[in-house]
Request: fold
Amino acid sequence: MMKKIVSLLTLLLMFLGLTFVFLRSCTKFQKSNRHGESIQIKGSDTIVNLVQVWAENFVKQYSTYSVGVTGGGSGTGLAALINKTCDMAMSSREIDEKEEILAKKNNVVPVRFKVGMDGLAVLVNKNNPINKLTLEQLRDIFMAKITNWKEVGGEDKKIVILSRESNSGTHMFFKERVLRNNDKNSKDEFSVHSLIMSSSQAIYDEVCQNSNSLGYVGMGFINDGVKAISIAVNKTSEHVYPTVKNVTNNTYTISRPLYLYTNNEPCGIVKMFIEYVLSDTGQKVVSETDFVPIN
Amino acid sequence: MRKIIDSAIETIIFICGMLSIVFVVLIFGFLFKEGFSFFRNFGILKFVTGHFWYAASDPASFGILPLILGSTLVTIGACTIAVPIGVMSALFISEIAPKGIRDVLKSLIELMAAIPSVVIGLIGVITLVPFVKNIFNLPTGLTAFSGSIMLAFMAIPTIITISEDAIRSVPWKYREGALALGATKWQTVRRVVLKAAMPGIIAATMLGIGRVIGETMAVMMITGNAAHIPHSIFDPVRTMTATIAAEMGEAVRGGMHYRSLFAIAFVLFAITFIVNFMADLFLGKNKNI
Reply:
């Protein structure tokens, strides 16, 4: 009898302990949100480094606050915003219809802020003789209609396509701009033979060591280790190299805006962060991290 | 008072013991619930035999045949490499090696088992991948073959440790009997020791397969993740585990894509369950001889 009571008591105690821990963690999260002592930002890997610098500078200025930044992809960030597990989502694409419906279901009102511009560079190995391609050729390469470099004037070597996972905003943007040529009804997809790399850095590394490969990454990755391709919109137009200037004056075609999404009109610390990001000092960081400022 | 402490501790230990059962049942139930609602919407046959995996597209296409084949190819490759090496090392350690070498080998192998998979993946990407590309003259070194080699590395310690235990637990009198009948050392090892230790070796292999098929990080980094049907072991492949890991973050909770990942997990769970079940059947059969 004694034994039973004791075991029941222990069980009850353990249960109470667990509930206590659970409740505490819940209230802590909500509290920190309500009083705006810290913000969680989640999303696009493309701009995670940029937002990280913003966050560090912001915390230096207002030392009582803290800002947490995590990557994972634009889809991850927007999903987190919809699931209310972050305060702000970084995204390199606009929110899509499906996500808007889910947001409405969860009583989330996404508000968009354009915080910078990004150009996607198509990289090849330094030993690859190819310097320029048209959008049409790029499209055929990424859909595996062209499978050998000699078909676009290069060596007789098989092309290795490098792509990102489908949660990456870079993947979505490249697909919409290059493969589908901004046609909303197009159903074109990356070839099944494309290798899916887990980050832009992984694509960069593979291009560095493999002379057959090509991949797409943010312009920040262009450096001496690889070669960026100049791109022409069609056969008759000029080939344009991805530079900050060419993105700003809209001559480089594979470029896109970068966004921060908040739930509802921002207030408190979130508002202060957005104001800092759009200020002159905030936009200076944009050009320092190899992206393109908005004005 | 002493009695109270005694029974309290007994209860705690009982709860800890039960926890693992509770977890397995909960995991199975959760996978079943999420996976089943997906199968009802999409159809299990279409899911398992579909050739295209474009889960985040519109309209989405959920075909995991390439993923199943990818996992299978990598696992078979890894086992072909790991099982002979593992069993032979175990034989060397338990039958041939002098005590000094044996101790060094054993502790090194334990150390090898402790290397995190992401480190193995990193080393593979930097060293093995370019090497495979150059030596076989392939368009890329990110292939099922590279993945198999790296995974074999991870399975070998498991296989060695358990096979060695099995070989060692073969009674000495078996060996003595064989040697007394005039068998050479190799004949004794092959016909008597290996045969007697076979159930343990098979169990070791199955555990090795379990480790390989469930491994995620290293394969995600090394196998190239192309979701197509592989034609040879030198093609890039995408495994089920890598797909779940890569896409779980993006999937909105409750959506088709999210549930399809649970459905993959369910298929994976079913496959490992069948492997374990077959191992058990085989072991049971062997014991009766």
